[in-house]
Design goal:
Layout (H helix, E strand, L loop, with lengths): L3 E5 L2 E5 L13 H10 L1 H8 L5 E4 L9 E3 L12 E5 L5 E5 L4 H8 L3 E5 L9 E11 L5 H17 L5 E4 L5 E11 H18 L4 E2 L11 E4 L9 E2 L15 E2 L1 H6 L13 H8 L4 H5 L10
Helix pairs in contact: 1-3
Enzyme class: ligase
Organism: Streptomyces millisiae
Protein name: Non-homologous end-joining DNA ligase
Amino acid sequence: MTSQVVTVDGHRVSLSNLDKVIYPDGTTKGEVLHYYATHGDVLLPHLRDRPLSLLRYPDGPEGERFFTKHVPPGTPEWVTARDVPRSGGGTMRQVLVQDLPSLVWVANLVVELHTPQWRVTDPGVADRLVLDLDPGEPATIVDCCRVALWLRDRLAADGLTAYAKTSGAKGLHLLCPLRPVPSADSSDYARRLATEAARELPDLAIAAMARRLRPGRVFIDHSQNAARKTTATPYTLRARAAPTVSAPVTWEEVASCGSPAELDIRLPDVAGRLAEHGELLAGLATGEGAAPLAPH
């Protein structure tokens, strides 16, 4: 197996097993590392100051997968780590990916990157709202797009700007920059909005967690706004059967989507999409246009 030590912005990073096949289509660990290293400019603004949770799949998506929030053993001293409040009390130490060397180091672990809707500088105070649209078969991402358009317009009525990205799995994520608000308040708003959408789109959307209600409809998961929850970070690779990416999409793509294949975005597609569209989530990353939540 090919391994090497590289220097990234003055830090030595050991990269292992570069020719190891990670995805069934033949994508190697070296290609995964190259993806993260070359897209650091769009990834890092969504990672900085957000405690990182890692879904590790070192032997590929069909091998062992395990989720961790704790700082992994062997973490270099130059990688930032902070004590983060635990939901049950006390703290745990988590990694922050603040720079390109840290991103390359964590990518070598073969991970999905997950982050909360708040920053470590203000734990439990949300600066983003997220709605995870999850289709229940035979519904698909096409149905998620129909729900997303309704939600976009409803959020706009409350002064919020929605950005869309694929989940990298079956559905869509909608995200809005917020003026900082306690996570409990953003959770309550998201729950009320999901309930309203389910009422207005009864044959298309549900807000209830019960899996027996999901077939053929889109579950609007509002729970990821809770302070203890995390969401797949923009541009992260996913531990799926193919190297899919949780990638931003235009509202034109959402409105015109007629087939799941149209929003099936994979590792080789991202560079071309960035060249064509630019960073569609730039406003989300900077908090441009962040708005307060509407009152009850």
